[in-house]
Design brief:
Length: about 325
């Protein structure tokens, strides 16, 4: 009898264990529809002076589930609609390691995830203005390749960059043209905010484009780990873009190429969207030094944070609202 009872108990334990394992096996992972990546926040995630993440946090992630990533000092938020967000950090190393940590986490389903990079940038005054929001269609790395300064070459020689094909995979990345165009068409009529201080600062520049009011645009995004500044640095960026056969650069920042490589590594490059708001010109105005320009307040920071969110959130909402279609079929302009 005792032997029978023991066998019965053992059988019950095995059945319960098997049931638990089966239950664990059918638990569905959270499906991440859109992953929003911002680079920094100024203070708290809500209720104070807003950096890149705050507007997204207050709209999508206040009260959402939060997760720690692979023992890294990162928090990933995921709401009930499948929108996720994280402060990725600044610079290429932070960007690539953060996105890699997120996409390698087995707790979540990223198989159909759209990645939205939304952050601030600089722009040449001849190509747009403070408060603009630019959808990237190509990513160019400012540093990858062979480079030198004009002082190291013969007088009359202008080239300062030589493309190296060994770096091409990361040096020049074409985004999904159809998706980028769809994002632009979806948001081109968004009414952007302006600021009197930014308007006054624009007036220091002679280019007609610099004097315009904020608009949604599209173009090349140049990534550099250094926060470079100045007319000659801008010309160097043009030279690097030309070496790759890329278009004319519109914005400069410190992370996009790294996000592109990480997305490529996980098979999600065709779902990567890069949205950059313009908070400064990448060179001084006539009569202003580079250091004066770097330390000057253009009046565009808060305006840029707002405009970037207005544009980025419209794409997020469209992707989520049409998930039955966009989950499997990447949107394009019809």
């Amino acid at each position: 009898m005792k032997k029978y009872v023991k066998m019965t108990i053992l059988l019950l334990v095995l059945v319960i264990s098997a049931t638990n394992l089966m239950a664990q096996g059918v638990v569905e992972k959270p499906v991440v529809k859109v992953l929003v990546l911002d680079m920094f926040e100024v203070g708290a995630n809500k209720g104070d002076f807003a950096g890149e993440f705050q507007n997204y946090y207050e709209t999508y992630f206040d009260g959402a589930e939060s997760y720690t990533l692979n023992s890294m000092p990162l928090t990933l938020y995921i709401n009930d609609d499948g929108v996720a967000g994280c402060i990725a950090g600044m610079g290429k190393a932070q960007a690539s390691s953060t996105l890699t940590a997120i996409l390698s986490d087995p707790r979540f389903d990223f198989s159909q995830t759209y990645i939205l990079v939304s952050g601030c940038s600089g722009m040449p005054p001849q190509r747009g203005t403070l408060g603009d929001v630019v959808w990237a269609n190509e990513l160019v790395d400012f540093e990858l390749g062979h480079a030198w300064t004009e002082s190291d070459i013969a007088p009359g020689t202008s080239a300062t960059f030589l493309r190296s094909e060994g770096y091409d995979r990361a040096g020049y990345i074409k985004l999904n043209a159809s998706l980028s165009q769809w994002a632009y068409e979806t948001t081109k009529d968004v009414v952007l905010v302006d600021d009197p201080k930014a308007a006054a600062y624009r007036a220091n520049y002679g280019a007609a484009e610099a004097l315009e009011t904020p608009a949604v645009r599209m173009g090349v995004s140049v990534t550099g780990d250094s926060y470079w500044h100045g007319e000659h640095s801008s010309l160097h960026a043009d030279e690097v873009c030309a070496a790759y056969g890329a278009g004319t650069y519109m914005v400069t920042q410190m992370e996009d190429s790294a996000f592109g490589v990480a997305a490529m590594n996980y098979g999600l490059l065709d779902r990567l969207l890069v949205c950059r708001d313009v908070v400064n010109f990448d060179q001084p105005y006539p009569g202003q030094t580079v250091l004066e320009s770097l330390s000057a307040s253009s009046g565009a920071f808060s305006m840029g944070m707002k405009n970037g969110f207005l544009v980025g959130s419209k794409v997020i909402d469209s992707l989520v609202a049409n998930w039955d279609s966009y989950g499997t079929t990447i949107p394009s302009v019809k």
